User: Fold glycerol kinase from Frankliniella fusca.
Amino acid sequence: NLTGGPRGGLHITDVTNASRTLLMNIHSLQWDPQLLRTFDIPAEILPEIRSSSEVYGDLAEGPLRGVPVTAILGNQQAALVGERCFAEGQAKSTYRSGCFLLYNTGPRCVQSKHGLLSTVAYKLGPSAPTVYALEGSVAVAGHAIKWLKDNLNLLKDPAECERLAGEVATTGDVYFVPAFTGLYAPHWRKDARGILCGLTQFTTKGHIVRASLEAVCFQTRDILEAMARDCGRSSSETLTELRVDGKMAVNNLLLQLQADLCGSSVVRTDVTEKAAIGVAIAAGQAQGIDLVNIDALPPSQSQGDVFTPSIAPEDRKARYTKWKMALTRSLGWAKPPKSATMTGGHIH
Assistant:
């Protein structure tokens, strides 16, 4: 509709959005004939697949009529570009109601064997190389804080969670698995349900709120561990830094816990809405405007807030082991429809 809709407008999409349909061959970057036959979808009704950065056409109406449309990117891929994760091995995490991680695998499409999605990261121009990524999603991140507020009345406002969690030095050995709708990547267990482990008579709401923040971090580590294994690495701790954005990224305690529990530096720049920055970078590329040098490394850490690990590796390992114990205990609570798993995943 931007370029005119049924009155001569363009019917196009880009490789990142098309890769989400289950209809595109992510190697050829074209609609897959076999998949179209399987789903009984005629090819002629589908949009043309283009790169993520080129001059597609002009706006047809409104005060910006005549302005060229020069970028199309999926939301998470746009955030990856906005974080300037252009080098293989760089990763970003977006913290919102859920949590969304992308890991740049470069020109190599890594076929995940550990419960992740192999996808197109971006293609910044018709003749530019295709860059691939591994993606994993957490169903419940910020939504757990909302649940503590709305359902348990532990908070008056979600913004209170950092203060309350900071009133205690640890979770008091409390672990919270917020599997309200099952577990997403990399476990894919529909039968999992939320569970609080390790409660004692001394447990306070501060411990529970802090455990909810740690749950976000542990679930993030689960995905990073799967990404590392898919890429032939021994541990997610080989990741030098994790670049973060999203509404929850304003929580300093969350990001410090993330660094502690993953063993990697966490970097937050001054702009947390990176998807908008990413699509602006792609739009500039199409017009020959280099807002950033895509061949260069991301900005130095001095240009953002850096959270570095502050706990001993032994402590990190022990806490992650306890998390996996709690995760295992969350399984089997709901009656599985046919199989307890979505993709046959297991807890590692």
About this structure: The chain has a mean pLDDT of 92. Residues 242 and 266 are 5 Å apart (CA to CA).
